[in-house]
Design goal:
Blueprint: H1 16-40, H2 45-50, H3 52-61, E1 76-79, H4 85-94, H5 100-106, H6 135-148, E2 155-160, H7 167-178, E3 184-190, E4 193-194, E5 197-198, H8 199-202, H9 207-213, E6 217-222, H10 226-233, E7 243-248, H11 271-280, H12 287-295, E8 327-329, H13 330-344, E9 351-354, H14 358-361, H15 364-369, E10 374-376, H16 381-392, E11 398-403, H17 404-409, H18 412-420, E12 425-430, H19 448-453, E13 458-461, H20 466-477, E14 482-486, E15 491-493, E16 516-519, E17 524-528, H21 532-545, E18 550-554, H22 563-569, E19 574-582, H23 587-597, E20 604-609, H24 618-624, H25 629-639
Parallel strand pairs: 1-2, 2-3, 3-7, 6-7, 9-10, 9-11, 11-12, 12-14, 13-14, 17-18, 17-19, 19-20
Antiparallel strand pairs: 4-5, 8-15, 16-18
Helix pairs in contact: 1-3, 1-4, 1-5, 1-11, 3-4, 3-10, 4-5, 5-12, 6-16, 7-16, 13-20, 16-18, 21-25
This protein binds thiamine diphosphate.
Thiamine diphosphate (TPP) binds near residues 131, 162, 163 and 189.
């Protein structure tokens, strides 16, 4: 087989030799797709075979190096329809990003890195995908981050035509157009089929018109004609608009009995069918040998571990200390800390995303001072979560601030895919809990601990006052990984120590997982979170008048209930958790689980939200929920 020449898309046309080599490459790769899916007894051969020329051209001609797949400044090839993993593995394996035989033999085998949907740990794969509709947004985040870093590269994202029924792609399309990301091309594998049959019968979708209406350059091309496809995929540096390439393809291309048959979207060939298919492709049938290879003990994931080139801000600056008489909201403290961080790190500014709420979430000042790093993303939260996640793995620290109900509930699956991708996104969720103002139950985010807590790599923090908020924001900006920082809307008092000085003052440093013993006491411990910490202190005062001595603890990291905290709490006659969050899925429930798991003897009671709230001032809503200090004190008196 002739060798493919890597041209970086410089020539206008594919040379005759390169065309020949690529054609041969695709014939062989189709055989790999058949082999790997048949050996596994599952997988998605149909779309893999229709997308193959696209994959082969992109990964062989773009500026990506199999010997250094994470090279700075590279082009990016993102595949959004991640079920076409056999096509991706066949292409990358044949281009020597890794050992192809290993991919063919272990595809979908438990413990193998070659999973059913592509993963970012595979050399050459930029993004783990499989939840359709998100890849275009994530790729846009990468293109944005690369542009902000002054990298002159190109980002291609390949997606399915059925996938284009997803609304998030419309959001992504507008975003890309709006921010002039002409360093991007979206390529659609238009095979006209999806699981339930013909795409146009499943759901009316006019992909070309939709993109055109949003101001894109649209090119339609035969997706199996290598020369025409090469010309369509070639970046046009003079173009001012992002480019859509509609690659007209055939599902199951290359094997006559698979072509245009939707069953092969997600059905592997039986061994005898595979034999026929390989014969038609004029390839040897080595399935027996490969199935022996599949039985061999492959050592776990081998070298296929995610390298995390996380960017963090270098300088955390000098904390702002809010004095004891300050009455302010945590979101204001977030905005101030963000500005300070930005001014300290002008050569590595964070990217800040907003969904039409900048004034409320306090990113407006940043927007004014750093308009090139602020992205007004409209009411397109799904896209924004994915864009910000994508940007964060392309070397920029990304903040996204929004109301809790949009930052968590609206976008859970985007965060889940971000988390699987080990992104580096800092979500600041304001207006959490009943503390929203008068908007009512649709706007009460009272389940963020259970949502974000179910993600394995998301640090969830609920600061108690503006001082702690300031430190948490600085910590998140200077530490890698996903953070979800939750806060309410209202102005709240500064938490003070026994001497009336700010508890989270000059000498305080936030460390993820640490809790705060704010007041000593002997009878009862009130363990509070967020804005409830100041209410716990009020409760303590009321109890004092009744001769009950209450300790107050602040839990800012509700997912971290360790034995040390529990040991301390074991000495009290009663422990009460106190939170502006659903009681059964919040901090109190985390504590109950920890008590059971660590086998501690603690007399636990919980107070929190137990029903959707109403519309009213927070104090009225707290009264209705039984969460005012006087009500809590009365409850403790009866329980102790
Ligand atoms: C959000 C989401 N919904 C449903 C699925 C299940 N699913 C996997 S592939 C597929 C059809 C995709 O059609 P298309 O994009 O045309 O891909 P092709 O059939 O051409 O491979 C569906 C519904 C999914 N992976 N993600």
């Amino acid at each position: 087989m002739g060798r493919i020449e890597r041209t970086l898309f410089k020539p206008f046309d594919l040379s005759i030799d390169n065309h020949k080599a690529l054609k041969e490459f695709c014939r062989n790769a189709r055989g790999d797709i058949i082999r790997m899916t048949t050996l596994a007894g599952s997988g998605h051969p149909g779309g893999s075979m229709s997308s193959l020329e696209i994959f082969a051209l992109l990964w062989s001609q773009a500026n990506v190096d199999p010997r250094d797949p994470l090279k700075e400044g590279r082009d990016r090839v993102v595949v959004s329809h991640g079920h076409t993993s056999p096509g991706v593995y066949a292409t990358l394996g044949r281009l020597e990003f890794f050992d192809l035989r290993r991919a063919v033999a272990t595809f979908r085998k438990a413990g193998s890195p070659f999973e059913g949907h592509i993963e970012r740990s595979i050399p050459g794969v930029e993004l783990t995908t499989g939840n359709l509709g998100q890849g275009v947004s994530s790729a846009a985040g990468m293109a944005l981050a690369d542009r902000c870093r002054g990298i002159h590269n190109h980002v291609w994202v390949v997606a399915g035509d059925g996938e284009h029924q997803k609304g998030q792609i419309a959001e992504a399309r507008r975003f890309i157009r709006n921010f002039g990301l002409n360093n991007m091309t979206v390529v659609v594998d238009c095979n006209g089929l999806q699981i339930s049959g013909r795409t146009d019968r499943v759901m009316y979708t006019d992909i070309a018109s939709e993109y055109r209406a949003d101001g894109w350059d649209v090119t339609e091309v035969d997706g199996h004609n290598l020369s025409a496809l090469y010309r369509a995929l070639r970046p046009d540096i003079t173009s001012r608009a992002p480019r859509l390439v509609l690659a007209m393809t055939v599902m199951g291309k290359g094997v006559s009995f698979m072509e245009n048959d939707p069953r092969y979207h997600g059905t592997a060939l039986k061994p005898d069918q595979a034999e026929d298919a390989l014969a038609e492709l004029e390839l040897p049938n080595d399935l027996k040998e490969l199935s022996i290879l599949r039985q061999e003990s492959w050592k776990g994931r081998g070298d296929f571990n995610l390298r995390l080139p996380y960017e963090i801000l270098d300088l955390e600056g000098t904390p702002i200390v809010y004095e004891a008489d300050h009455l302010g909201d945590n979101r204001g403290a977030f905005g101030a800390a963000l500005m300070d961080l930005a001014r300290m790190n002008t050569d590595n500014l964070p990217l800040v995303f907003d969904c039409d709420l900048a004034g409320s979430v306090k990113t407006g000042e940043f927007a004014e001072e750093y308009p090139d790093h602020f992205f007004q993303s409209g009411i397109m939260e799904h896209n924004t979560a994915s864009v910000a996640g994508g940007a964060s793995i392309a070397g920029k620290v990304a903040f996204w601030a929004d109301f809790g109900v949009f930052a968590a509930d609206e976008t859970f699956n985007q965060h889940r895919l971000n988390d699987i991708n080990m992104t580096n996104l800092k979500v600041v969720a304001t207006h959490c809990g009943l503390d929203v103002g008068m908007d009512g139950k649709t706007h009460h985010c009272i389940n963020y601990i259970s949502l974000m807590g179910s993600l394995y790599h998301c640090n969830t923090v609920v600061p108690a006052d503006p001082n702690q908020t300031d430190r948490v924001i600085r910590y998140a900006a200077t530490h890698p990984g996903n953070f979800f920082i939750a806060m309410g809307r209202s102005k709240i008092p500064v938490i003070t120590d026994d001497n009336g000085e700010p508890f989270f003052g000059d000498s305080y440093r936030f460390v993820y997982g640490m809790h705060d013993h704010i007041r000593k006491g002997t009878d009862v411990a009130i363990v509070a979170m967020g804005a409830m910490v100041s209410k716990a202190l009020e409760t303590r005062g009321i109890l004092e008048g009744k001769g009950i001595s209450a300790a107050v603890y602040g839990v800012s990291c509700p997912l971290c209930m360790g034995p040390r905290l529990l040991d301390e709490l074991s000495s009290y006659r009663l422990v009460l958790t106190y939170e502006d969050h659903d009681m059964d899925t919040g901090m109190g429930s985390k504590m109950a689980i920890a008590i059971a798991c660590f086998r501690k003897s603690i007399n636990l009671r919980r107070k929190g939200v137990t029903e959707y709230g109403a519309s009213g001032r927070p104090e009225e809503l707290y009264r209705m929920a039984g969460l005012l200090p006087a009500q809590i004190a009365e409850y403790i008196e009866t329980e102790i």
